[in-house]
Specification:
The chain is of the alpha/beta class and 246 residues long. It has 10 helices and 10 strands. The strands form 2 sheets. It has a 6-stranded mixed sheet with strand order 6-7-8-3-9-10, with helices on both faces. Bound molecules: adenosine-5'-triphosphate and magnesium ion.
Length: 246
Amino acid sequence: MPEHNGHTAPLLDVRGLTVNYGPITAVRNVSMHVGEGEIVALLGPNGAGKTSVLRGVTALVRPAAGRVRMAGGRVDDPSKAVALGIAHVPEGRRVFPGLSVRDNLLVGGWAVSSRQARLREREALVLDLFPRLAERHEQRAGQLSGGEQQMLAIGRALMSEPRLLLIDELSLGLAPMVVDTLVERLVALNRTGVSLLLIEQFVHRALGIADRVYMLSKGRVAFEGTPADAARTGAIEEAYLLGAGT
Ligand SMILES: Nc1ncnc2c1ncn2[C@@H]1O[C@H](COP(=O)(O)OP(=O)(O)OP(=O)(O)O)[C@@H](O)[C@H]1O
Ligand SMILES: [Mg+2]
């Protein structure tokens, strides 16, 4: 995997991000980056601030401090995030249950293009990545299994032709075999050049595919390094134990 070597600017560059909800500080002074082509895992116990980091990155919440740059441009609102090549698969998937698989995908594409040919081309790539969605094309999203809904949420995000995909809780509520399929598809997607920033509750699964990992604890970066470093130092266990005490 290409790694950020300090000479070229990273694809995503987050500096000093702080996210508050009223009086609550969910993210404190977090700096992180994702290089072109990298898979980066964002880990941490419940309430550590993982989702809030993603919301700050896409400007779904306005950061109290810090700045987010993507491909050299400043992300100052959610539409700018999309325009600069970030797509977000939210916690809980949030597919539109009453719309067909096809229409869910089209909604994901509208942000970048209304040209039919381009949308169809893009949709073909998504259906190629997830053949199950092709089989369910006319079905309403609300009737899909959990795993299929996650495929649809990822597919919808891919319709905007992102260079970076943010995925919040890939495997939540899904059977291990389904998660294996999703992970395998994401690795295939990454090989096409799409970078990934992945929140995943099953730490070892995330470490298995990640180039680098950030460990959050109580809103701060408690560890940053390779999966091998994490294993050697025991940093992951420590952060989960500390976080679990609050
Ligand atoms: N909309 C909100 N209003 C107030 N507090 C919030 C809001 N969203 C999150 N928080 C608080 O911010 C902190 C970080 O929450 P966040 O959802 O980012 O954590 P997380 O690491 O994604 O947790 P989980 O693993 O449970 O998804 C928590 O203390 C949470 O209670
Ligand atoms: Mg979360």
